[in-house]
Amino acid sequence: MSDEHKQDQNKDQNLYKAYMMKTKSDIHHSPTLSEEEQREIIRVGSNTARNTTVMISLAILLLILPLMTLITYMYYGIGGKANKMIDVVGKTIYVTEPNISLEEMEIESEIGLFSMNVTFDTFKRIGSEDYLAEKVNVYFGLDEPKFPEKISFLEQLPPMGYGIDVVKDGQKMYHPDAMVPFNTTEAEDVLNNLPDGTVAEAYVSFSQLLKPDEIEKMLPKEMDIRWLAVDTGLEAKQLDKEGVPITPIGYPAQVDTTTWSPFNGREQTNEEVFLNILKLLEKNEQTAEMVSKIKSLEIKERRKYVEDKGIQVYGAVVTGPVPELRKLEQVKNIRAVKVGEVKLWNWK
Where are the transmembrane segments (predicted)? Predict the structure, then answer.
């Protein structure tokens, strides 16, 4: 090795040693953190990590919630599913609740997260005026309805709960072959003791099955026939094939000229609309049973019976001045009359 080379090597070694000594000196003289400062650094770091996690989770939720809401709107909107469900609800009311109508233009729906609430008012004609009967709220979890929540404004409160008790307590018209479970004389006394200056609603049971056009001819003139109870083959026993009580089904007796009513008489008679509604409810029987709070509607069997036998009526809801309703007792083909709602005079 040459002298010149050795000198360069020694020079490098000296530089390295000087660098290492300086580094050790820097480390030795660098400021140290106290234990409290170290805890503070750890605490700040932990909080920062936690806050970051929360913010990320919140951002994900804020993204997911609108997405799920959009999916819900698409579910109810595609194919008009929401409108079809509302249609089933409204038409169930028409054919299962005597003398009850609703303003379909006033039906409101509110879309929630995978759910929909349908709210509407129902009305009952007493005399010449329509009175608010109930405020109804039907909740759908996707397409699965729950029993409706109702607030009644009637003097005679409808039966509470659902199922068999609703059927028995709400039964007011009876097939000619079915037993009338109340004292008909006492029922007539109710009508006879009402003031003359009042109007009332009466549930009439006939002693034989009648064609719809035969009813108006035999009833007193100064009253309106509101709803017809149709013989569907099950009303004599008032039970379905499994022994479950069934409710009357029928249809409004008069044409409703309001545009939104299915019984507006523009293209079909009320009888034709009634049969079409039965076909609709047959495809949506679960919803119809929930909305009507009935365990069994047996729509398919009853629809076939009506199509085979034709529409025959065993009962009707009428309304008018009380003195005129008293004349029902004298009609030969009437076996029972039960008074419904009563109001002060409004007859025109």
Answer: 54-76
| Cβ-proximal residues to 177 (8 Å cutoff; 6+ apart), any chain | 236
12-21 pLDDT tens trace = 888 888 887 8
CA distance 296 to 191: 33
Amino acid at 69: T
Burial class (CB in 10 A: 0-12, 13-18, 19+), 150: middle
Which region, left, alpha or beta, applies to residue 320 given φ > 0 means left and ψ of -120 to 50 means alpha? left
| pLDDT tens-digit map of 90-136 | 999 999 999 999 887 788 999 999 999 999 999 999 999 999 999 99
Query: Furthest-apart CA pair in the chain: how many Å?
Result: 147
Collapsing DSSP to helix, strand or coil, 123 comes out as strand
Query: C-alpha distances in angstroms, 23 versus 11, 18, 19, 29, 60?
Result: 19, 9, 6, 10, 48
